[in-house]
Amino acid sequence: MITILVGQVPFTSINMGTCTSLAGRIVINSILDAEIDGLGDHETPIFPIVVFKVRAGKNRYSGDPNYDLYLKAIESTSKRMYPNYVNCDASFNAPLIDDDDIDTEAATMGCRTRVMSDIFGWKGVSGKGNISPCTINLPLIAVKHGICLGERTEADIKGFYNELDEMLDFTLEQLVYRFEYQGKQIAMSSDFMMREGTWRYGKTLRPDQPIKELLKHGSLAIGFCGLAETLVALYGKHHGEDKEVWKAGYNIVKYIRDYCDRKTKELQLNITCYATPAESTCGKFRNAIYKKYGKIEGVSDREYITNSFHIPVWFKITAKEKIELEAPFHKLCNAGHISYVELDGNARNNPAAIHSIIDYALDMDMGYVSVNFNLDRCPRCGYEGIIGNECPKCLAKDNVDVHISRIRRVTGYLNGDYTVRFNPFKQAEVRDRIKHM
Asked: What is the CATH class of 127-432?
C-alpha cells in the first residue's frame, strides 16, 4: 500500500499514491491532510519526506480512481513543497512493474536514491539500497584538457576520456573493496539493518553469519558532480547555453552509465550511475579545483560546483526549458536522480501552475521531480510566505525581535533554516538561485 524507505535516522521517506483500496485512500488522504495542516502551530514539516507516486490508471488523469488525491498532493506541494513526485510511467520505470506486486513500482529514498533492478533477481525497491556511493570530480579532470586555461583553442576530448577511464576504474576498485569489507560483517554487528529486517531477509541470518550474500543485492553507485563546470572547462559554455555542448554533456554521462552497465556484467555486481546530491561535496570539489588551478570563470569562481547534471542555479532559463534539458539525464542515472523547478513565493497561491509543471515533467520522462520556493516563517505570529527583514503581519524585525525561519530545499531535503543549519557552500547556492518562470 505505502512503501516506507528508511536510511539514516531521521531521513525517512513515505512513498504513496497508487493504492486504490478504501483503506489505502484513507491513509493517503490523511497523510496529505496532515502535511497541509502542518505541525503544532501549522509549521511546515521538514520530515518525513513525502513522495507521491504518479501512475496512469491509478491517479494521473481525470477519471483515475486516485486523481482526487493527485490534485490534493498538488495542493499540499503548493503550501509545503512536499510531496515530491515519482514517475512510475517513466520509460525506465514502467517495464519493471509487476501489477501483482506494488513493491515493483518506482519509489525513492529522500533526495534521489533509486534501487529498482537487480542482476540477482530481487524485484522491487524494499530492503536494499545504494552501498557507499562515491563521487567523481568531473571538472577537476576537465580543466587541464579544456580551453579554460588558455593553453589550447580546442578541447582535448581524447585526453579527458582517457583520464575519466582511469578515475572510473579507481572509483570502482575502491567501491568493490569497501563492498567486500562490509560483506565480511556479521549480522549481529548491524542489528537494525539485518537482524531487525530493514535489509530484506536480514532476519534469516544467524547472528554470526556474514552479510555479503544479502548486501550484494544493493548497488555500488558511481556518482558525478559538476557537469556544467566540466563543459565550461572543456568548451567555454555549459549545457544550458548551447545545443552541441548539451550533446557533449549527455555523452559524458552516458559514457559513465555505459561503463557501469559493462562492469555490472563483468563483475556480476550491481554497478550504477548516480546523480550525486553533492551536499558538502559541492564545496570541497570546488576548493580542490581552486587550490590547483586558481579562479576560473564559470568553473571555480563561485563557492560551489553544480549538482550532478543540473543546469546552473544562477542561469536564467524557463521552467519548460529546464525540464526539457535535464529530463534525458534521468534515464542514464539509474542509481538516483532528481530535478527541481524554482518558483517565486506566489506559487503558494497557484496550485494550477505547479500542476502544469509536474505534468510537463512527467510527460518529458523525468523520473523524480519537485518544485522549490522560498518559505519564510515568523515565529511570533506564525505568518508564512516571503519575509524580508521585517514580518509583514506583526512587524517583528529579523534578528532583533525574532529569528525568521527560512525554509529551503537543499539537495532534496527541506531545511528548517538553511542560514544556520547548512554548510556555506549550499548557502551560497541557495542565494544564487534564480526563478524559473
From this structure: alpha beta
Tell me how far the alpha carbon of residue 374 is from its chain's centroid: 19
Tell me the CA end-to-end span of the chain in Å, nearest whole number: 36
Q: Are 76 and 68 in contact (CB under 8 A)?
A: no
Spatial separation of the C-alpha atoms in residues 124 and 227, rounded to whole Å = 30
Regarding pTM above 0.90, the answer is yes
Per the CB < 8 A criterion, the answer to whether 175 and 132 are in contact is: yes
Rounded CA gap, 360 and 355, in Å? 9
Q: Which residues, at least 6 apart from 301, have a Cβ–Cβ distance to it below 8 Å?
A: 295
Q: Where are the domains of the chain?
A: 127-432
Handedness of CA 348, 350, 351, 355 (dihedral sign): negative
Residue 66 has pLDDT above 60, yes or no: yes
Average pLDDT over residues 224-229: 97
pLDDT tens string 175-211: 999 999 999 999 999 888 888 888 999 999 999 999 9
Closest CA to 411 of 358, 361, 336: 336
Distance CA 282, CA 410 (A): 12
Q: What is the mean pLDDT of residues 286-293?
A: 96
Q: How far apart are CA 144 and CA 318, in angstroms?
A: 32
Give the pairing of strands 271-275 and 219-225: parallel
Q: Quickly state the pLDDT bin for 1 (edges 50, 70, 90).
A: very low
**What is the spatial order of strands in the sheet that 375-377 belongs to?**
384-385, 375-377, 405-410, 413-415
DSSP string, 194-224: IITSSSTTGGGS-TTSBSHHHHTTSEEEEEE
Contact residues for 242 (Cβ-Cβ < 8 A; gap 6+): 235
Torsions phi, psi of 384, nearest 5? Answer: -120, 140
